[in-house]
UniProtKB/TrEMBL annotation:
The chain crosses the membrane at residues 12-30, 340-358, 365-382, 394-415, 436-456, 468-495, 531-549, 858-877, 884-904, 910-931, 952-974, 986-1008. It holds the Pfam family ACR_tran. This is Transporter. The keyword Transmembrane helix applies.
């Protein structure tokens, strides 16, 4: 007591320190990192292995399977997903979610060692596996260097300079270029010319390479010095290639005909290789510059620097070239932070006005200042701890507002009570702090434990919400510290013991209500069974209403962005995909909702958000990133777009999809079929797609293996090939020359190493047999038809997905007009009724998979949090009965939460679940305050019923203010896409639970401890309670 009094007499120091904390909090706000959404770790790496010439089946069996076997020995492996396609294996390695960022580099090093070890088990022609552990790198800013009717080669130089300048800016982690095409020199020769010259493609290549061979010419000694003889490359320009001398067939004079290469072939510099990816902005050629900021940087300040840099750079660009913005994280951050600051200020104002109405101006000012100090101290802590200011951390402040005032309300209210009892102000303040320090600390820790499952959970969505714990924990502890120090000092400064006029008016206004409440309270204390008469119909009504609450695990982002994914049938080439997308671009740019579009051909947009998982590169795939004028315009655009695309591209598989908030699931509904035989799997998935298509609320129904692709297989006559000295590799090389071309050499052009390819033109299925193939037995060539009997057209499965070494094919669908959860429930019985052969199984993916994985993770942590809460309550009361009474009231929140979600039209999802978990801590905190006050009344020797009644009336204001300020403070969040579920859950759950608990807890206390009186034959006192327990 004396220590507390001594501390309270140091008011000047406490006030001075509080002012310092104000400046520290404001400075921290200016300095701390700012983001739109929280960062979370994608614990996935990709292992890519090229196996040129192999089919998807061969890649799966000879490469993918061998690598997967080795990777399965990783200790922290969660699952392996793989994609096998002709010539390439992609293995996605997902690590366990409980790993933190610091552990990942070591895990990726171990992964690389495993990949190196498996090299000896792969085919000789398989290339070295590459581990991409930056798969989750996020490029929050996307710019396009755009030129109308300007070739990519010109844009490339300006894009590189732009990249260099951005890299020089502090706070930049990485800058990547996308849509940069690889130039290539193509030597195109007509097939008939080759036949006439009696040359095969390989013979022509040999002649070109012989004239460009870089040989070691040795050295020569001159006058005591040894000088190196340089043998330079002969190819420096296109003209050099054109002038290469080529020997053809033997002429009439017995000598071979000699001619220039340009006499028999067309030599051209092409701006792109067939395998390159393309990018366009609003239909014009572009190179996309993707910028990844450093972790913890103030993105808003960084954005200002980049804006200035772009303005300066654009002044140097020639006419026709511009820098355009596709995605600019600083603007999104600025808007998100400003919107939440407005919500925070609105909530703060609501809380202060509510306190003023019930407590008076001075008391509400004390509590309000305590609240602001708690927020400022939390900002200082966040800055030191490296916690960014973003959507979830700001929303957590609003969530905490009502709880933050609890401690200050209790101390302020108790100070006034002590003064009315005749204590001098300093002793009154010290007594209030002494009495409530431990109970309030215990109650505060209990409230913190309410969000402990979010801290302990390990999934990505839980990591997304981790700042709920960080902000709640720090702010509540600071609120307790402020209540124990600054709040009593302000009471001494501003509250005069002789004049309780501050509250008198409010008490007189509430007199009638107070009398009604006292009568009702007295009734339930004397006859506790009356509570059951009220609770029973409420429980029944809740059980009836609960199934009507929609479920939506995680909402879509509110950013005005929508993607259009476009798939042609497997095997389509890049030019066809690009041509289709150009038509789509023209249509999109005519739509009034569209602001701008960015097109990526053969690849996805760079990962500019954690929830965007790029598609594997594929020439049959393209993506359009559409920026609309506002988020509400997306629905109408998608509805018209679906109809237009279906009419104009019937063979394609287009799909509009929104930007997700915190999950990266591909489709809303996914049913995965797992088993050994791809043919059986194909039959199962077709049956599932039929069921999905019949539902009135599904669209974009498809499977991830897509349609089989066409192939042409040469039927080689092995005997004829042996006699002619032709190997299978010779035939393969000639066939490759008619499409992508055969590598010849390379040349140094404009500071770039440019490959030279030979292509044979004017070839189709009919003329293919006449294509010359060089014999290994001599310098002559033979027609391809001599060693190949026929060319057969067939089909092959060119995409094979696996999970944990078993083939898996997924039926996929999106939904409209209903939530994904509701549609999945309606499809569940039919899909699970599909007859599966032995060795096959079906599992759910999509939103359902994410939902159950995250919810299970959170619920797995609930026992830990619950045990800690119970231990604290038992320690506080040295009894089991009071904790049992408090815990009984927690489920009462379900009634209010259920009807609030229905009333506000909000679905139940992860954030609603988080809100429900937080509610338990709030309700228990209020219960501790009430139970502690009953104990204080009993210590005075007051009779049981009277003690319960007086304590409840004494603490009704503090408990009601806490609940009311928390609920009203959540109102601004009802319009927020992420927090609306949580806001509705807490508003309804807390108000109903508080009202009911102010009757239920007293009634239960009376019931439990009156039984003790009857058993013991003595009145209940504080001491007798402990003995009884």
């Amino acid at each position: 007591m004396k220590i507390i009094e001594l501390l309270l007499r140091q008011r000047t120091f406490i006030g001075f320190f509080a002012v310092l904390c104000v400046f520290a909090g404001l400075a921290s706000y200016m300095q701390m990192g700012k983001l739109e959404d929280p960062e979370f770790t994608v614990k996935t790496a990709v292992v890519v292995t090229l196996y040129p010439g192999a089919t998807a089946d061969e890649v799966e069996n000879h490469v993918t399977d061998n690598v997967e076997i080795e990777l399965q020995t990783l200790e922290n492996l969660y699952q392996i997903r793989s994609l096998s396609r002709p010539g390439v294996s992609m293995i996605f390695v997902d690590l366990k979610s409980d790993l933190n960022n610091a552990q990942l580099p070591q895990e990726w090093d171990l992964l690389r060692r495993k990949v190196t070890d498996v090299k000896t088990k792969l085919p000789a022609t398989a290339q070295i596996s590459i581990v991409q552990d930056e798969f989750s790198e996020v490029y929050g800013m996307l710019f396009s260097v755009t030129g109308k009717n300007i070739e990519n080669s010109q844009l490339r130089e300006y894009a590189k300079e732009f990249q260099r300048r951005i890299n020089d800016v502090d706070g930049i982690r990485k800058v990547e270029l996308h849509g940069v095409t690889q130039p290539v020199v193509n030597i195109d020769i007509d097939k008939d010319r080759l036949v006439a010259l009696e040359l095969s493609p390989m013979q022509l290549i040999s002649q070109i390479q012989a004239q460009d061979a870089r040989l070691n010419a040795g050295s020569i000694a001159i006058e005591g010095e040894r000088l190196r003889l340089e043998h330079p490359s002969a190819l420096h320009t296109i003209r050099d290639i054109e002038n290469i001398a080529i020997q053809g067939r033997i002429g009439f004079d017995g000598n071979r005909v000699v001619m220039r290469l340009s006499d028999i072939a067309t030599i051209s510099l092409d701006d792109k290789k067939p395998s390159s990816n393309l990018a366009r902005y609003n239909g014009d050629n572009a190179i996309v510059v993707a910028v990844s900021p450093s972790s913890g940087v103030n993105v808003v300040s960084l954005g200002d620097q980049l804006t200035d840099l772009i303005e300066e750079f654009e002044r140097e660009l020639p006419l026709g070239i511009s820098v355009d913005t596709i995605a600019f994280q600083p603007d999104e951050v600025n808007e998100a932070v400003n919107d939440f600051l407005v919500n925070l200020l609105q909530s703060l104002l609501i809380v202060v006005v509510t306190l003023w109405f019930f407590m008076g101006a001075k008391s509400s000012a004390i509590v309000g200042i305590s609240l602001v100090m708690s927020i400022l101290l939390t900002l200082s802590y966040m800055n030191v701890a490296g916690i960014d200011l973003q959507r979830v951390s700001l929303g957590s402040f609003i969530l905490a507002l009502g709880i933050l005032v609890d401690n200050a309300i209790v101390i302020t209210d108790l100070f006034k009570v002590k003064c009315r009892q005749g204590l001098e102000p300093v002793k009154a303040a010290a007594s209030a702090v002494k009495e409530m320090a431990i109970p309030l600390l215990g109650a505060t820790v209990i409230a913190i434990m309410g969000v402990l499952p979010v801290l302990l959970a390990t999934t990505e969505v839980a990591e997304f919400s981790i700042s709920v714990w960080q902000v709640m924990c720090s702010s509540l502890l600071f609120s307790w510290l402020i209540a124990m120090t600054l709040t009593p000092v302000m009471c001494l400064w501003w509250l005069k013991p002789e004049a309780d006029k501050d509250n008198a008016g409010n008490e007189s206004k509430g007199g009638a209500f107070s009398n009604i409440y006292r009568k009702a309270l007295t009734s339930v204390i004397r006859k506790p069974q009356k509570v059951l008469l009220v609770l029973t119909p409420l429980v029944v009504a809740t059980l009836v209403a609960l199934p009507h609450v929609n479920v939506n695990f995680m909402p879509s982002s509110t950013r005005p962005i929508v993607f259009l994914d476009y798939w042609l049938p497997n095997g389509a080439n890049l030019d066809q995909t690009s041509s289709d997308l150009k038509k789509i671009e023209s249509w999109l740019l005519e739509q009034p909702e569209v602001k701008d579009i960015s097109t990526f051909v053969g690849a996805s947009a760079p990962r500019f958000s954690m929830t965007v998982e790029p598609e594997p590169d594929d020439p049959a795939y393209g993506q359009v990133l559409i920026n609309t004028k506002d988020h509400g315009a997306i629905e109408g655009l998608v509805e018209r777009g679906d109809k237009w695309l279906a009419e104009n591209f019937p063979n394609a598989e287009p799909r509009f999809r929104p930007l997700k908030m915190a999950t990266a699931d591909k489709f809303s509904i996914e049913a995965r079929f797992i088993g050994p035989d791809p043919v059986v799997l194909r039959g199962l998935v077709e049956e599932a797609k039929l069921i999905m298509n019949e539902h009135s609320n599904t669209k974009y129904v498809r499977d991830d293996w897509r349609r089989p692709s066409k192939k042409i297989t040469p039927q080689i006559n092995l005997e004829e090939a042996r006699l002619a000295g032709i190997h299978r590799s010779d035939i393969g090389a000639v066939l490759r020359a008619i499409d992508e071309g055969l590598p010849v050499a390379s040349m140094h052009l404009n500071n770039r190493q440019v490959p030279i390819n030979l292509r044979v033109s004017n070839v189709d299925l009919e003329t293919l047999p006449s294509l010359p193939v060089q014999s290994q037995l001599g310098s002559y060539s033979v027609p391809l038809g001599q060693v190949v009997d026929s060319f057969e057209l067939g089909y092959e499965q060119s995409i094979i997905y696996r999970r944990d070494r078993l083939p898996v094919i997924t039926a996929q669908a999106d939904v409209f007009g209903e939530t994904a959860s509701e549609v999945r429930k309606q499809l569940e019985q039919q899909l699970e009724a599909i007859e599966l052969p032995r060795g096959y199984r079906m599992v759910w993916g999509g939103e359902y998979y994410d939902e159950h994985r995250v919810v299970k993770d959170v619920f797995d942590q609930l026992p830990t949090a619950s045990v800690i809460m119970i231990i604290i309550m038992v320690a506080l009361f040295n009894s089991l009965k009071q904790p049992a009474i408090i815990l009984f009231t927690v489920p009462l929140a379900a009634t209010g939460a259920t009807f609030a979600l229905l009333g506000f039209g909000k679905p139940f999802g992860f954030m609603a679940l988080t809100g429900a978990i937080c509610l338990s801590g709030m309700i228990i905190k209020n219960g501790i305050v009430l139970m502690d006050q009953i104990g204080l009344e009993l210590k005075k020797g007051v009779a049981l019923d009277k003690a319960i009644e007086d304590a409840t009336l004494n603490r009704t204001l503090a408990i009601s203010m806490s609940a009311l300020t928390t609920a009203l403070g959540m109102i601004p969040l009802l319009n927020d896409a992420l927090f609306d579920q949580m806001a509705a859950t807490i508003i309804g759950g807390l108000i109903v639970a508080t009202i009911l608990s102010l009757f239920v807890m007293p009634a239960l206390y009376s019931f439990v401890f009156r039984k003790q009186e009857q058993l013991n034959g003595t009145p209940v006192t504080e001491e007798s309670k402990h003995v009884a327990c």
